[in-house]
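[Solved] Which block belongs to which protein?

Original post:
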Amino acid sequence: MNRDTDITALAERVLSEARARGLRIATAESCTGGLVSVALTDIPGSSDVFERGFITYSNEAKQELLGVPADVIRTHGAVSTEAAMALASGALARSRADMAVSITGVAGPGGGSAHKPVGLVHFAVASRAGPARARHESFGNPGRDAIRVAAARTALEMLLEAIRC
């Protein structure tokens, strides 16, 4: 990953603020392949906040490991708000974390379509303390690595926002 100090600083803030509130975090990553988990666990002492991470790249893994309903994938696709919400909820349900973030998208260079182009990424944060939130971003097509890093950054920003609420 071509990670910069920006992502490291963001991960440090996520860990610090979660730690101060006694919160534990889980991740459910698809197109980022674990980059959010790496950003968090690269920081010494992260084990008191980072509970676990799921890398669910295939549709089968999303269903088997996180309980994403086959109907969600069949009806909306793996790259959708519905799938992101199900991934985050599944990670929360299958962990001891207080909140979970999910990322699912099209990092490219292939795999995109007119409806779901390369660079489209859906995110969700689920929390035991409140309602889940979702959003999506269209990062364009600056290349696979750039999309994955931008998605990891966005997921960390969403976690930080959820921690502060």
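(Second protein starts here: sequence line, then its structure tokens.)
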Amino acid sequence: MQRYVAVVGGGDCSPEETRTAEQVGALLARHGAVVVCGGLSGVMEAACRGARGEGGVTVGILPGADRAAGNPYLSVAIATGLGELRNGLVVRASDALIAVGGEFGTLSEIAFALKLGKRVVGLSTWELSRRDEAILRASSAEQAVRLACEELS
């Protein structure tokens, strides 16, 4: 069965986060995983660009009502009109989650995934004051993808 892995992070991100997210997307595509994201810019766009560059499939679950608002690397754009509430759909649609950097929206996705018992891998992302061990820490895109996919096979 094909794996669906969410890649989450800020719509605005650093050049390093952009490179990392693009590598994550490419590696996920090489592993045959579908990349799921919020469909906009920043980490989301970089992950999609990496995945599509490797022939992968990308799904963007958009906050607004216009599919055209999605980044140009989406295979499938789903316009929800739900605003930030769409973060729950990104998590629900995925088997595991990789967080690259991120702001409060990313934190909400991490929390939803942990609440649902999904594997969460972090690359320079939030630290939790309670149960920080719940987020598996990765130091590279390769390690993040390995950690996200190892129990999904």
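Accepted answer:
You had them paired correctly. Confirming on the second one: The chain has a mean pLDDT of 96.
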